[in-house]
Structures are given as C-alpha cells and as structure tokens.
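Entry:
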Amino acid sequence: MITKEWAQHFAIDWVDSWNTHDLDRVLSHYTDDFEMSSPFIVAFSGEASGTLKGKAQVGAYWRAALQRIPDLHFELIQVFVCVNSITIYYKAVLGKLATEVFIFNPDGKAFKALAHYDN
C-alpha cells in the first residue's frame, strides 16, 4: 500500500530529476519494460497509439524532448494517492497543466504511466 509520504517523496524526486535534466535519474523511477502513454508521443514521435514501451524506446523519446525543450521545468502542485498508484498534478511544459498517473509494481517502480494535459 502506498503512503502519502512515499508518494510525496516519489513526486519530489521525479520532478527534481526532470528539472535537472538527468535522464538516467528520470528512468530510474520505472521498470525496464514500462509503458508510457501521452498525447505528446503522438505529436512528436508519430506513434499513432500514443504509447511507447520499454526504457530504450521511451528514453530515446525523452532524450529528444530534452534537446527540443532545453529549458524544460516542472512545478509540483499536488500528489494524489491510491492503493498501487499515484497521480502527480504539476505545471508542465509549454504553459500546460498536467497530471501523470503512475502504476507501481511491489518494488516501488512504475510499470505504467499515463500523462494527461489540460489542452
């Protein structure tokens, strides 16, 4: 069961890893075979399903995103907790508000993530 304290720590570390542009640290939050879904995947990678699978595929996509948006910065707003998942509400890139849902395995690594944006 995920606690509020654990979720808050995860969210702070996740945001900080993005804000320092440390891709290895970002990827450390996920299993090797995790699945990521985002409307940005459709827009920027041409993957019509909006989903990428595995650290190699997602890592390459995120590496390109960090190059494309060199001043990328997230601001944590709120963290929501469920039994085996959390949702992070944050200020994202391009002036967007976002929520990201992370579903965790028993080791505390996300095996699925779903990014949602306000427009």
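The chain has one domain: 4-117.
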